[in-house]
UniProtKB/TrEMBL annotation:
PROSITE patterns: AMP_BINDING
Family affiliation: Belongs to the ATP-dependent AMP-binding enzyme family. MenE subfamily.
Highest taxon listed in the record's lineage: Bacteria
Protein's name according to its UniProt entry: 2-succinylbenzoate--CoA ligase
Known role: Converts 2-succinylbenzoate (OSB) to 2-succinylbenzoyl-CoA (OSB-CoA).
Gene3D superfamilies, A to Z: 3.30.300.30, N-terminal domain of ligase-like
Source species: Halobacillus mangrovi
Length: 489
């Protein structure tokens, strides 16, 4: 049955019209009433332009205020947003334009040239159907028939997976997926009228986009940051009553480095940490600074988090991603507690599948992630199945090695991947980013590891990099470590 709810932006305009929906560090702010009116006006102009219900509309845009306005305008039309990674090349962008059957393409500031190159390479979008968002013809609003309700089973967004093997796939998110993701998070973390969520993750990824959904569903303020900047963010948290922020490991590391001897105010309640396994050392540093870190587990297919560590267990279960959120299920395909196996998930926030692929109609979604549950049922994420190094029949999890290597004095960041070996089939190789002015000797690192790792886990090769390869969400791209080494040399 197709369940409907009132359009969430109409509802906030009714309940909280003057409450700030979005603000920026430069002093700009937009109320829910203004966000609603601008989104409706843009929707009417898009309809006049030719955009219609059911169209797949691609958006290539950085974290600009026009992003949420554009997204909400599509929800008033009933069109589907295809969100594109701004860090991709034009050639890479051409694939989703074709794969997602995009009929309209809009670009943000500074991205029109790349968008045009992608449009030409895709050969699927007519020339007149690529526009810069700022150049959309503004006509007098004609009070067209805009959506008053949201159909929970209708596809709202498509986001492409990273495509570490083969071509990327478009994860289809329904309005219901985003709704239940936000509701599940609220049941775990709680919601207060004065909440203010700082958004520095890219909005074209699910971690950033989910903050927009929380804002319009909860009726809370989003503090929008165009790009990650540790001093700017720490200043906002200290001086602008930020209560929540979503980050990945590298962001937390840089925020703590910039924080130095300072502390966050008591008004700051939640550092939501996702993006994969986290070095325990980093969590300990955060604990010493009284930073309220809540580690999460989720993926694009789960519309952001599906498991989060309950605040009451944050320090007792350091390193855990917690338990499944209220409407969700997370199980580990293993023989029992503390046994590593593949993580399977189920719930109303889980996507039903990928566009132009067979629906994910199985009871549980196989995540491709490895983890275990302890005796009390708390989930610990070990690694990606694809990242596992199998050496002489033994499984080696890169994240475990990276955690140890990050503890070596002078190592700022560490990445581990497998290299071929005639004897063992595969052995681990370490890529280290030294702190400024520090020289690292591989013999010293190997000796350090000998005290902390089984012999077969110790990296057999060490390489120095200026920086590790990461995607737009700052997740480590282990398969690109050797390519990064070649580029630097």
């Amino acid at each position: 049955m197709n369940e409907t709810i009132p359009h969430w932006l109409e509802k906030q305009n009714e309940l909280n019209p003057e409450h700030v929906a979005i603000e920026q560090p430069d002093g700009f702010s937009m109320s829910f009433s203004k966000l609603r009116n601008e989104s409706r006006n843009l929707a009417e102009n898009l309809i006049t332009l030719g955009v219609k219900e059911g169209d797949h509309v691609a958006l290539l845009m950085h974290n600009q205020i026009e992003f949420p306005v554009f997204i909400h305008s599509l929800s008033y039309i009933g069109a589907t947003a295809v969100l594109l990674n701004t860090r991709l090349t034009a050639a890479e962008i051409a694939f989703p334009l074709s794969d997602a059957d995009v009929s309209w393409f809009f670009a943000g500031e500074g991205l029109l040239e790349k968008a045009e190159q992608a449009r030409q390479a895709s050969q699927v979008i007519p020339e007149g159907r690529l526009l810069k968002v700022d150049d959309i013809p503004i006509r007098k609003a004609e009070t067209l028939d805009l959506k008053k309700e949201i159909h929970l089973d209708q596809v709202f967004t498509m986001m492409y997976t990273s495509g570490t093997t083969g071509n990327p796939k478009a994860v289809m998110h329904t309005y219901g997926n985003h709704w239940f993701s936000a509701v599940a998070s609220a049941l775990n973390l709680g919601v207060q009228p004065e909440d203010k969520w700082l958004l520095c993750l890219p909005m074209f990824h699910v971690g950033g986009f989910s903050v927009l959904m929380k804002s319009v569903i909860y009726g809370i303020t989003v503090s929008l940051i165009e790009r990650f900047d540790a001093p700017v963010i720490n200043r906002e948290i200290r001086n602008n009553r930020i209560t929540h922020i979503s980050v990945v490991t590298l962001m937390l590391q840089r925020l703590l480095e910039d924080l130095k001897d300072d502390f966050y105010p008591n008004t700051f309640r939640c550092m939501l940490l996702g993006g994969g396994p986290v070095p325990e050392t980093l969590l300990r540093k955060a604990e010493l600074k009284s930073v309220p870190v809540f580690q999460t587990y989720g993926m694009t297919e789960t519309s952001s988090q599906i498991a989060t560590l309950n605040p009451s267990a944050a320090m007792k279960k350091l390193g855990s991603a917690g338990k499944a959120l209220t409407p969700a299920e997370v199980i580990v395909e293993a023989d029992g507690p503390n046994e590593v196996g593949e993580i399977l998930v189920k719930g109303p926030m889980v996507s039903k599948g990928y566009y132009n692929h067979t629906p994910l109609n199985k009871e549980y979604l196989r995540t491709g992630d490895l983890g275990y549950k302890d005796d009390e049922g708390f989930l610990y994420v070990v690694d990606r199945v694809k990242d596992v190094i199998i050496s002489g029949g033994e499984n080696i999890y890169p994240a475990e090695l990276e955690s140890v290597l990050s503890d070596f004095p002078g190592v700022k960041e560490a990445g581990v991947t497998g290299i071929s070996d005639e004897t063992w089939g595969e052995v681990p190789a370490a890529f280290l980013v030294p702190e400024e002015g520090v020289t690292i000797h591989s013999e010293d690192v190997a000796e350090f590891c000998e005290e902390r790792l089984a012999k077969y886990k110790i990296p057999k090769a060490f390489f120095i990099l200026a920086q590790l390869p990461r995607n737009a969400s700052n997740k480590l791209l282990r398969r690109e470590l050797f390519s990064a080494l070649e580029k630097e040399n």
